[in-house]
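Q: I'm writing a short explainer about AraC family transcriptional regulator for a general audience and would like to include a description of its predicted shape. Could you first generate the structure from this sequence?
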Amino acid sequence: MEKKTPLNIGLEILGNLDIVRHNEFRFISPHFGFVHSFAKLESSLVTLDQPYRIKEGRVAIIKQGYARVLINLIEQTFQPDKMLLIVPNSILQLIEVSPDFDMQMVAMDSEFLPIIGKDDFFTHLSQLQKNIILSLTPQESQQFKSYFDLMWNILQESFFRREVIQHLLVSLLYNIEYLANNNQKTQNYQTRQEEIFQRFISLVNTYSKKERNVVFYANKLCLTPRYLNTVVRQASQQTVMDWINQSIILEAKVLLKHSNLLVYQISDELNFPNPSFFCKFFKRITGITPREYQNPE
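A: Of course. Here's the predicted structure. Afterward I'll give you a sentence or two in plain language.
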């Protein structure tokens, strides 16, 4: 059987010349990567409306254009003067991309970051505010552009100056942490309900493959199931089960498109009692069967 595109979009994929045509616009090593221009890569990596799991953490700045994206079920808009921080193992789905869209991006795993005592630094950062997108002032935007320009210039040297890049990244991440903290102090825009909803979505993204009971999530949040349902509905116009089902479908779509697992194996992976139950569930939510999604005519 021909091997499909790997489930995780990781650094090794960007090194594939069948996927990325112009490698002069990117630098790839086992634990770190830099994309100088997403548009100029002419990558065939990502297709609209298909979910992908992002293996390493990502930090990106938007150069021009815009993109509408679902990140772990939540829609975001990427546009100029935005700083993006995407935590490892997030599921990303492009909804719409403008023809002129371009961005710069760094990707790294935890082994590359020389930070003592913060093994999960990306998750730590993402919990500082409601979104993983920071709006930048013109001055802040220029500062981050300078970070990216300096790293790219250093990466053009014949020898990979690993320690220099590592510590520039640490500085970049702590600067993001500073801005995220500062935004929280100056903008009291996250209500108690919004905070609960964000924590709930984070739990769903973590546990939905095994836990599909409202009581489980309510207990995790120290709330009653009824109150959790009320908060989630008010914050999103959807129920707790709506979000759980969407998360399961997202996981199923990733496995159907980007793994070699058969339908019955995916059913087991997602903890359904049997393949028939999984197929009926998938069709009820999406309108098509898993096989039809996996192999459209």
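A: For your explainer, you could say: DSSP finds twelve helices and eleven strands in the chain.
Q: Perfect, that's easy to follow.
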